[in-house]
């Protein structure tokens, strides 16, 4: 399943392959960029019990397509970038390490009190989340630092040892350590780790001063506990995958996408596993930014419809918003920078059912195994993909590039028995169309919610749609929302994997400093920034990136007195932090707060809560192959007709071969364009034009 082999600017003679691998809930997507810059796309089923099995299967498929052994391919590969859902799957299934918590005496219940927070503030009856560390595994020990990091009460090391012996009897495999104000002075937490090496050999230790070195306490406790809970599984998975890659000839560092949208080495991620939680959609958003930039679009809505979920991200100014507050993931609050992506359980594998006379679609998914009924792998419940097949949008003989023949008869029987009859509908197509409309409504509501939260009218922004199922539904979603333009890349089915190759290695550093902004010590801030620059540069140098490739971006976190959450503000310049920088920072905060919340209190002096740094190593990116233009009509790429269901009736619909279409050719709807790994549905009243970069532009 290759994009058209159009050669562009050559890499150096010694340049090798680059591979992007994105593991989703249903499929593992792979992108191979050859030394001549041509691109090959592929997919394989995700192996949820051990994702590395599916990854190696996909790599073998790539090698076979290139006519190489796996060993030769990996020896010639200069970079592998990986996106994994291991951390998310661990939180979904709550099957992480048996975790204990040692904290300041009197604060063992901080994680349950949660400062009164709930994900849904309007539901007072919402139960608490499953406990990562039940109360019996949370132990407070005498110690105390004040807000300046000065020791008020020495660490009681005997109490620490006694706590560890109690936790050892409970067979913990991971330990979280969270002390008050350790983000100012980490001395006590680091001493606990030293003691743990003797008292708890082989147990992973997560220190809050390293995982999230800043206030507030609840967010720090929640983030550190999640890191401890998922860390051992991440380490095991990455260790196994790296060993398999080395055994088969790969000699470079494996890079992983983080939740902040940047890359970092597997060894870095293994020690800070929480940084990959919720990272899955980030690669696709980065790719969407590239596609939109090429189309001269800076503000848009990115939507990714895969097999399990539907991910929405609002992008303004050409960059996705990265937030470090109110990041709820799997019912725990993560206080680290994350690309602001909202997800709903709506994908091609979403299961349709009738409950008490009403049709429900999702959030349960058939996943990779057994998958939709039409795959013939044992699925028995109809899904969105099954409905799309029943409506004629998918070709049963040309799915997955023709490698998988879809079972239409089983789908028809299942929809008839499980959906049509219970709902009392006349035909199977009416039932299938009900599934189609229901999932579209869920996805449209997700877009409305995200845009409404930001005060944006979605009608004013184009949609950039990708994922294996995104191209089937995007046109209808745009029509429902009143959006006039949709961009669908040819690489949409593996777009997140391609996005991994378009992003850069990134390290985020944070240092706590709580003071009134107008009283901030300029020398202290200068030293904190200098320290963070040294630390971040050192991390990137260890990953093999030269200092000349690294760019530093300074950040400061401010809030008004009494506010719970702070706002990150970019700090321009390098070198010493000056009085002018401080005054400009305060004004920038007022201005940003007004943009975000519609008001600014300029009579109040904001509180500086932390300073941060983003270090990015800018690397060479693959070029997207160009599609030759043609003045001939699109009809030359027509491959036939088939019945498809639009506007409540069947239409004889022209079907086009996407590999034969050329740039500037226009297809009028209703029509279907078949790409090797996805299908683009153009609804009545819409038309699609292909550009030279391989993007379909749908307009109403």
Structure, explained:
The protein is α+β, with helices and mostly antiparallel strands and 700 residues long. Strand 1 and strand 2 form a beta hairpin. It folds into six domains: 115 residues, Nucleotidyltransferase, domain 5 (2-Layer Sandwich); 129 residues; 127 residues, ATPase, nucleotide binding domain (Nucleotidyltransferase, domain 5, 2-Layer Sandwich), CATH 3.30.420.40; 88 residues, no CATH class; 112 residues, no CATH class; 57 residues, no CATH class. It has 17 helices and 35 strands.
What are the main properties of this structure?
700 residues; Nucleotidyltransferase, domain 5; 6 domains; 6-stranded mixed beta sheet; globular; disordered N terminus
How many strands appear in the DSSP assignment? 35
Mean pLDDT: 90
Strand fraction:
25-35%
Q: What sort of overall outline do the alpha carbons produce when their principal axes are compared?
A: globular
Low-confidence spans: pLDDT under 50, at least 5 residues? 1-14
Proportion of residues in helical segments:
25-40%
| Whole-number count of domains | 6
Give a quick account of the main beta sheet: strands, pairing sense, barrel closure: 9 strands, mixed
Helix and strand topology:
Elements (H helix, E strand, L loop, with lengths): L16 E7 L3 E7 L5 E7 L5 H15 L4 H6 L1 E7 L2 H8 L5 E6 L5 H4 L24 E4 L2 E2 L5 E3 L3 H13 L4 E5 L8 H13 L4 E4 H4 L5 H31 L6 E4 L5 E3 H6 L10 H13 L5 E6 L4 E7 L2 E2 L1 E2 L3 E3 L2 E3 L3 E2 L2 E3 L5 E6 L2 E8 L18 H7 L17 H16 L4 H26 L9 E4 L3 H12 L3 E5 L5 H6 L5 E11 L5 H21 L7 E10 L7 E5 L7 H19 L9 E11 L20 E9 L2 E9 L8 E3 L2 E4 L4 E4 L4 E4 L4 E5 L1
Parallel strand pairs: 1-4, 4-11, 5-6, 5-9, 9-10, 13-23, 23-24, 30-32
Antiparallel strand pairs: 1-2, 2-3, 7-8, 11-12, 13-14, 14-15, 14-20, 16-19, 17-18, 21-22, 24-35, 25-28, 26-27, 26-28, 29-30, 31-34, 32-33, 34-35
